[in-house]
Amino acid sequence: MMTGFVNYNLGSVDTLVEGDLYAQRATVGGFALNLKSGYRYGKTKGDVITTDLIYSTGDNNGIRDNNFSGVMTGNNWGAPVSVWISHGSYVLFPHGNVVNRFVAAVNDISNLGYGLTGGTLNWHYDISPNKLNFKMGTAAALSNVATRGGGNLLGVEANGRISWTPKVYMNLELHAAYMWLGDFYDSPRVNGGSNVRPSNPWTVFVGYKWLMF
Description:
The chain is mainly β. The protein has no helices and nine strands. β1 (2-18) and β2 (21-40) form a beta hairpin.
């Protein structure tokens, strides 16, 4: 299988000059590309290898040059939309099976306006056909614009999951992931002004899903 998307932002940002008079502050022109592919190597749908790649343009000076070449989504306005969750990552990118999806290293494909190049690779294997499935994956990403005082590498993640299906549309799952932060986080600009580099993040959680009709 193969799927993906192309997103292009085109427009302008107008600001209030005086009274009710608005003037153009900056033009906007940025795009994002995604490509996801998978191959089923075994007899069941659980025997599959998938890869998910993402690219978005960035801007190294904001709108100081009256132009923004980064990507803008609903997340820029605080709306919980346009969340990229199809990849299989847990910490580097937001995961779909959690209560709060905005706790990842890269919450939005714009990556704070710096742009993004990254992806994931996942291997799934049915230990017991259609009953017990094991998944192992990795993810990595670069910021297309290096932060002041930091670098381009966002980090590398390793993750795993074991899922048991006791009944149709019922899953009990154990998830775990660990991320090694890159030099992107050496910059105080992305650490809330702090010069202290954050610790490598990790997560372990149990998920229970039951889809009833």
